[in-house]
Amino acid sequence: MLMKHKVYVSPGYRIPLLISCLGFVLCILCIFWTEDMNILVFSAYAVLSAGTIWFLKVWVDEQYRLGREIRFPLKLIFPAYPLVADFDQNTSQMSAFREAYADFMGSDRRPVSNSRLQNYATQLLWHSVDLQKRRMDRLGVQMDMEANRRSYVKGSKGVTADAYFDGRYEVEEVSEEIYALRTLRSRSRLLKRLYDKEVAHYTFLSAQEVGEDQFVCPNCGSLSSRSDLLDGCDFCKTTFTIEDLEHRVGSFGFRRDFQAREGKRKAMKKLIYPWIYMLTIVPWMYVGLFMPLYISDMNLFERIAGGLLCALALAIGAFAVVTFALFLIFPLVMMFTKLWGGLNRWLLYRSPEEVEKERQMANYVRSFDPLFSLQSFFGGVQNKLYALYFADRAKQVNAFSDIDLARLLPRNQDVVALDVQTMRMESYKKNEDVQLATVSAEILVREFKDAKIKTHKEKVNMQLEKNADCLTQAVCGPSILRCQSCGSSLSLMDGKTCPYCGRELNLKEHDWVITAYTAE
Q: I need a surface site. Which of 215, 267, 282, 321 has the fewest CB within 10 A?
């Protein structure tokens, strides 16, 4: 089970250890059963090698997760990703948010009182996370998360940041290279481990300070002093405090497709080189270890000593041969993956064509909206996807749409986790009244059925609209939305209809709204 303070007793070791022990026993028995290297002997070597390779893979994953170094000699095979400690306000805030998020998602039940996570998250992010937690609690599932910030690119601190003012908020878009493990469990029973080995993305929102003790109201844009905002904005009456608007996380997720920065060659090496080395070195090492045991005119000590020397010699020889051979093999592997893209989804990589297409789309939207950020846009879309998949009531699933999406409730009732594999803004246009965008996304949907986690892939296509004059990107942020009819505060957890006067919030004035949706 997962324990606190970076201590871990992994059931994942058990099966590879059992396989290794079985293979070792078979290899010993073969010494007595046969004097020749036959199919039985090679089968025993195969079982022992498979168990050892599996064990090493689990062990290396644990070293990454626990923030420990990969030491010699495995450092020659596995990539060494150095740990990056907090070094500024953003990194400290990211670590604190991840800790609060992990505590909230890993608790056995949803806290009755306000969660510590609400001290970090905006209303929209809190809405989506709380819906997921409610779903997991209903199904009896918890999710533990442990994460380390690591640098995948040599010489990098593993963190990139971009700050700007979007018309209402000071926005900081921050991404960190990360190695995380999410463990889904039902009480104490392990269900599934999910490894996130690439990039986590955050959007931080803060109220803009203009001059001394002057702040921009993010709801109406007016200037007010800190003291004037204590009981709500004097102009639009929206209630919030400046503390509510200080460095809040507006979106969070592990989203690989538009953040990976390595070239394909480097990404491919890190993916396949360890496997090629292990599949070659481990079998030859065991051949060397057991080969002297078949020599009958040597005593036991000589056989053991000779086996250790032979194992070392064959392992070094296999390492040298593989290193040389990879110079010849790797171009063939690159050609193969170009013709068959099956390996690409495992890579920390984006093609130059994809990067350029995304850049052109962002620049096109900026010709209409100079403040547009594609990453903030994707963060908002991801929050809406979470709301759609984890909602349990019609008013929740329809909070961000102009169409009735209640039909999604039965098909998504067992979903406990989502992983966004890719997200693309396919088109954008603006007319006098409205902005329209189409988005496609590939999602790994994880359901809890028959006491197991079952995973399938869905492709989602959405059309979104918002008013032409709504140019701010960080929408539905820390401030509590206000009914324009009766003045009551609105919570998106209860939908977009005022519970007091019944008036429906026109969300297009603030945010992108779903006007068409398909999932297949």
A: 321
User: What is the enclosing helix (H) or strand (E) of 430?
Assistant: strand 415-430
The type of residue at 56 is L
DSSP 121: B
Residue 321 has phi, psi (to 5 degrees) of -65, -45
Q: What is the pLDDT of residues 22-57, one digit of tens each?
A: 988 888 888 777 766 677 878 888 899 999 988 888
Q: Give residue-wise pLDDT tens across range 447-497.
A: 999 999 999 999 999 999 988 887 765 544 434 466 667 766 666 666 677
Residue 115 buriedness (CB in 10 A; 0-12 / 13-18 / 19+): buried
- Other C-beta atoms closer than 10 Å to the C-beta of 248 total 26
Crossing angle for the helix pair 264-290 and 300-339, nearest 10 degrees?
160
- The model's pTM is 0.74
Highest mean pLDDT: which range of 332-346, 391-405, 470-484:
391-405
d(CA 247, CA 119): 10
Give 504's DSSP letter.
B
Is the Cβ–Cβ distance between 400 and 513 less than 8 Å? yes
Strand partners, 184: 143, 192
Q: Which amino acid is at 223?
A: L
How far apart are alpha carbons 84 and 78 in whole angstroms?
A: 18
Q: Tokens 């590879």: give the residue.
A: 16
Least confident of 310-314, 338-342, 397-401: 338-342
C-alpha separations of 412 from 141, 182, 341, 397, 496 in Å: 15, 21, 30, 11, 21
Among 375, 367, 473, smallest CA distance to 428 is for: 367
Per-residue DSSP letter, 193: E
Flag whether pLDDT at 394 surpasses 90. no
pLDDT exceeds cutoff 60 at 160 = yes
Pair 475, 506: CB distance under 8 Å: no
Side-chain-side CA neighbours of 162 within 13 Å: the count stands at 10
Q: Work out the average pLDDT over 256-280.
A: 64
Strand spans (E) along 65-152: 142-149
Rounded Cα gap, residues 71 and 235, in angstroms: 62
Q: Which residues contact 300 (CB under 8 A, 6 or more apart)?
A: none
Distance CA 200, CA 98 (A): 10
CA 311 to centroid of chain Cα atoms: 40
